Structures are given as C-alpha cells and as structure tokens.
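Folding follows sequence. Below is one example:
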Amino acid sequence: MSQNEEKIKLIRKLAEQILSECDSILSTPEKALAAPALATKAPTTKLDEIKARFPKELGDMLIFSERDDVIIIKPRQFLGPESFAKIASIIRSLGGDYVSAGRDSHFKILKS
C-alpha cells in the first residue's frame, strides 16, 4: 500500500469518526447541549459587591478605591449626562451619594 493510499484510508477513518460524533450530538436533547454554567466568583468584599453592580461599560469608566469606612468612586473620563445619571442611580441604590468638589468630585458609599 502506498503512502497516499494510507493517508486516504486514515482520512476516511477520521471523517467517519467525526460524522459519528456529529450524529450523536444532533440526536442529543437540547438541554445536554446547553453551555455549562459559568462558575462566577462570589464577591468577597464590599468593594467587590459594589463593582459587580455596574455594567462593564460603566465600570470601565470608573476608578474604585477604599478609605477607612468609605468606598470612593471617581470617573476616569468625562461621563456625559446619560452615563452620569446611570452611575448616580446605581450609587443611590447602594446608599451612596455624589460629592461635588470641582476636579475632586466623586461618589462615595459608606461600607457599613
């Protein structure tokens, strides 16, 4: 048997295996095909809990830091009225407030 014939035989065998696996997948109920649930890391600190409340696009606009009994949230960039309103709403729902202080303006949330 030539090398080409051996390669063709091997390719056919692999193709049969692939088709067999496709058949078994297609005959499997949809629930079995669902992606496994992603393991989500539970927030471990108050800061992690607060960060988790922000959608990624808003969270990426903010700098989160901790001081004694307060969590400080500062914008990385100009937020614009729409983003500011969304962020302020989330902060208020967490019991926080906006501190207007010119260039040092920020949001703060008490840890307790």
In short: DSSP finds five helices and four strands in the chain. Helices lie at 3-26, 30-33, 46-52, 56-59, 80-93. The mean pLDDT is 80.
